[in-house]
Every structure is written in C-alpha cells, then in structure tokens.
Fold:
Amino acid sequence: MAQPIPIPAPAPSGTKLENPLPIIGTQYCTPYPVDLSVVKKVMTISDGNFVVTDINGTVIFKVKGKLMSLHDQRILLDAAENPIVTLREKIMSAHDRWYVYRGESKEPNDLLFTVKRSSMIQFKAKLHVFLANNTKEEVCDFKVEGSWSERSCVVYAGDSPNIVARMYKKTTAQSVLFGKDNFSVTVYPNVDYAFIIALIVILDDINKESGAE
Structure:
C-alpha cells in the first residue's frame, strides 16, 4: 500500500488581531490590511530621509534625519510635516538601542517603546521591541527579523510566529535611475502602521551601522 505523501506545514500567515493595537495612535489602526510604498532617498546630504505613500501615491508619512546632532535621530512626520514621533539612538549602546518618543519630546513620560538588537553579533538583523510599560524586558512585545540588503523583513507579535507586517523589495526603473530605494510594506489588520514604519526606519539605520546584511 502506497504511503501517503507528507503535506508540509503551512508557512506563518498574517495575524488578524481582534482589537486595534495602537502603539502610536488609534488613527493608524484599520480593520483591513494596509499596503504602503516606502522610498528611501539614498543620494541626499541628510541620510535617512524617507517618503511613505499609500497605493494611490498619496503621501502618508515623511522621515527626516537631523544634521549636526549629538544623537543619531530621525523624526516621523505626517504629510503636512507635523512631528508624530522622534527616534533617538542611545550613544555608546552595545545593542544599538533606540528610544521612540511622542512628538519631538525627550521626556520619559512620552516614551512609547524602545528597540534593540537581540544580540551584539548578527548576520541578519534581529530586533526586539519593548513597549514603554514593559520595564523588565523579559519577553519582547514585538520582534523584527530581516535583511536590509534584500529589502526583506517580517515583524512578529511578541516572541511568537504570528506575523503583523512584512516588507519586501520593489525595483523600478525610477529607483535605479534616481538613486532611490523602493520597497513595499503590508501591515495586517488592527496593527499600528505608523509604528511599523518607525521600526523599518530603525532597521535601516542599524543595518547601515553594523553591516548586518
């Protein structure tokens, strides 16, 4: 009697959260998946500048780096260039720790979350994300795994296989000609998409500094 052909286990799919999970704001959580396009301008004086649009090409966010700053710093702005959050790297941090504050604040009570590499030596980036109220940091609230050179990463809920967002490379003739990196992000329902964009900006910076490709 022929043996049945083993069926491989399905790959982890996107997680549909039952309730909105607003890290930055409830206005960035939708009951349906959100597809965003991200363009990194790679030939500019101020490194780390991004533009984020929806599928219709409408600008949703902008990211700007601060020049002449003691801290490596990025600001996530809305389309009208109002600051949403400020991303600040901790100086002399072995794990490349970043702190993310509401608006342009640096006050502890405005801290939303922190991000750090899971280990000092990595071939591909693995980041652990801790919300501000997770002071013990025994288990991460989110984790990011991916390779910036391949423009591919996955965001997981906690220390689990449940995927809440994906990033993948998108090559266009314009991106090759005009020195821009283009990639797409899919954010699953009820997940804060401003939060996901902030994580991708930090992933970009950590990969650039550490060479974790």
User: Anything to note?
Assistant: The two ends are 48 Å apart (CA to CA). Residues 1-12, 173-179 have pLDDT under 50 and may be disordered.
